Amino acid sequence: MGAGARCRHRLSPDRRNILLVVILGLTLGGMYFLAIDSQAPQFTFTQQQNAYNGVAGSPYRYRVLVPVILEGGMRIFGFVGSPQQAFQVASLVCECLGFIFQLGMMYVFLRQFFQPMHALVGVTFTAGMSVLTLAYFTYQPWSILEVAFFALGFLLAYRGKWVGLTAVVVLASLNRETGVFLPLAVLLATLNDLRPFGLQTLRRAAKRRETYVAFGLVLLSTAIFLGLRLVRGSAEPVDALPDVIRRNLERNNLIAAAMGIPLLLGFGWIFALLGFRGVCRYAPQGTSPRTEITQEGLHARGTSPPGTESTPEGRHARGGLPRTELSSEELHARGTSPRAESTPGGFRARGTSPPGTESTPEGLHPSGVCFLRRIARVVPFYLVAFAIWGWWREVRILTSLYPVLVPLVLAYCCSSRGTARKPV
Amino acid sequence: MTIAPDLRYLGLVVSVGAAVAFRFFSDFSFSTIEHQAGLASLSLQRFTPEAWLRLSLNSLGYELQRDWFNLSPQALPEVLAALVVVVLGYVLVRRVTSAEVAAASVMFATPFVGVGLIAGACAWVLARAAGTA
To answer: Is ipTM strictly over 0.95?
Structure first.
């Protein structure tokens, strides 16, 4: 029993998982470099120079963040040889760091709602599926950062860090035009039940502080979108929309898309849908009655084991969650308590638990469920944009939805009885 | 819909296995490795660590970038075999630990197994070519 054994004991689950995340990030970064950058190094270098100098076609001329980062990297690694060689090294480093950032942010975001091992399941699932996306494109490193920005943005929104979220929205908008979906998702998440849909309901929603802050962020992202086009000048589109549509409908592309889109999440598509619908049960084996989070919130089902029946008030006589906690959760999830709302302090319930400890052995905290469901409202908008402007077989574009869909997959997978065990 | 926890995690594992297998094995064979090495003008005459690394990177780069919807004849059996391997891996690890640990372990290992298989095949091709040279 030497220092190594003592070291193993000291490594907390989160630190160990972050180490694994780093290894996965390095591996994916290396694969990305091999699959994309090394295939056409001259083309990639030219594309970088055109994007940096503002002479690339649309939309690459307006994706300014990564070219600026890579230009900085080229100067740092200028000692390795020619500018193209320096660019290659900078790309490799940026891609490795980008994937570490991406998977790291995914892990931290998932940790808001899940135990360390469940969060690791989500990250390994994300990394495994990302391998599929390493084809059918050249030089699109902004997609790596976009996933990270979305995860970080959702994390900051959930924690109510609006200043930080504003900074991330700015970066995401400078990174890629689809960055607008980040504030849009947050805006949609701030809206509670919009039924019955009407002017009164919208007016009520607009009175809430976080709603108009989120709306301001959507405007900010839109302003950056327009400002970039004003500052960098008009550019001919690399792919005209009619060409994109015609290409999408070609036989081979349809076959590739028909295989690639289902494979992108595999069974995860179904699990995410089920997670969204709230079929999750949150109870450790044999210690609690079956509880379910539905559209109406957390409530006891009529299938409890003997001795743990629900009272008429919906609280468990014994064996379940503490009476007061369940009561507050019920109120919380039903939106009748101040804590149920997405407050200026964030979407996370206030005063219920310290940061990072919301994921109890019983499963998701109701505020987490509400948040995850509400940010998922952005998915149809994103898919419509993808269907119109995207190249369908280029499933890389859909990876931006990982921070929305993977938590729902996990919500479904780790919610049943018997899976909540002591983290290793 | 109620699915046992193990089946849910198995669903994730199979999904990752399929994604990685289609990416790595859409056109994977010894002859493909030799053909790609020929196109890249890589010498297979001597088994050196450098030659093995170059051949492995060349083959890996080809597999990762390939049009995988246009599967080679041997691809489907290889993908199915890969799925069997990940399912067996999950079942074996699950015998000694919890479902989520087993799922995370197998999904973590899957990309490395793919890389390892290609590197192993390249070593075999190189050893065979060097032996006959």
So the answer is: no
Q: Is A375 in contact with A186 (CB distance < 8 Å)?
A: yes
- The predicted model scores a pTM of 0.83
Closest Cα of chain B to A9: distance in Å? 18
Say which residues have a Cβ less than 8 Å from residue A216's Cβ, sequence separation at least 6: none
Residue A389 covered by a domain = yes
Selecting from A125, A409, A412 the residue whose C-beta is nearest the C-beta of B107 gives A125
**For residue A219, what are its two tokens?**
């405007």
Neighbours of A185 (CB within 10 A): 27
Q: How many domains does chain A have?
A: 1
Helices A366-375 and A323-334, packing angle to 10 deg: 20
The predicted-structure confidence for A258-290, as pLDDT tens digits, reads as follows 989 999 999 999 999 998 887 434 333 333 333
Total domains, chain B: 1
Count the helix, strand and coil residues of chain B and give each as a percent rounded to the nearest 5: 75, 0, 25
Any A CB within 8 A of B60 CB? yes
Query: Which residue range forms the structural domain that includes residue A68?
Result: 12-276+376-413
A66 or A347, which is more confident?
A66
